[in-house]
Each structure stands twice: as structure tokens, then as C-alpha cells.
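Researcher: Re-running this chain for the archive, since the previous output was lost when a drive failed. Same request as before.
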Amino acid sequence: MAENSEPLNAVLVALEIGESYTIRKLRSTETEACDAFFSRLCSHDVRWRFGGPRLSGACLLPARVAGRCSLAFAAANMSGEILAILNVEYLDPATAEIALVVRSDLKRRGIGSALLRHVMRWTRAAGLRRLVGHVMSDNRIMLRLALAAGFRPTAGDQALIEFSWVAPTEA
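Model: Regenerated C-alpha cells:
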């Protein structure tokens, strides 16, 4: 898999299997694209991402709620169809909580890994020091992805594990 060296706005990613897609910020106006993406998620993926049922993809859009700002990054194919979304919610000036979901039929192609790596690079550029995320203990694919990316378990119980990643500081 190869990524171009553009700044952390939009990047083009080429998979080893010959497919390409773009990673970019998701706009709050992309309701239809999020609904189309959401309709391609299996019920267990909805449960793993949200902890319970949801009715539409609107919950994936960036928003400002109760004074908290969130944003989202999307991996989209060349025709604009969303393949994966990673949401970022600021918890404080140095920390953000992230949540990733890849379209159910596209898992294990490197899309989620590339999207997560992109956001990890963006973290330092955005002035953040730490990312946290919560993974259900039965979501083995996401557990492996988090560990492989350098996240470490910091808390949890039998149902939910909290992971944390601290951005490296420049020497």
C-alpha cells in the first residue's frame, strides 16, 4: 500500500490489489453519502461502532454539540462512494476520542488501517497529544488494528476496552 505525500488534507491511497481511494475530511453536508454508507453496514458493525442500533448515517457527520467540536475523515473511492469513516471528538485541547467504522463488505483490505494512520499523523499537526478509543471486547478485528497501530489498552472490562495512543514528540 502506498500513500502520496500531500499535506494532511486529502490523500490518495493505492492498495496492493490495484484499487485506489482518497482520504479526506467529511463535510457536514454529506448526509446522503453517509446514509448510503450506513446502509451497507451489517447489524453487528453498527453495534460495534455505536453500542446499539441507529437509524441513519447522520450520526457519522461532523457536528458541534454542547460546545464540543467533532470532525470526521472519510475514505472514498474515485466515484465518491464512502468506504470508511473515522470520527474525531475533542475531549479537551490535547485529547480526542476517535471511532472508526469500515463498510462491512470491505474489511481486511487496509482501508481502516490507512485511515487510522492518516488521523494519527493529523493528530500532531492539529496540536493534539493523545487519542483514545473504545472497542467492544468481541470486535477482534478492531482490537488487532488498534494494537498494530500502536494503541495500548488503558482501561476496560469484559465488554469494552479503552485504548490510548500518545503522539510522539519531535526531538
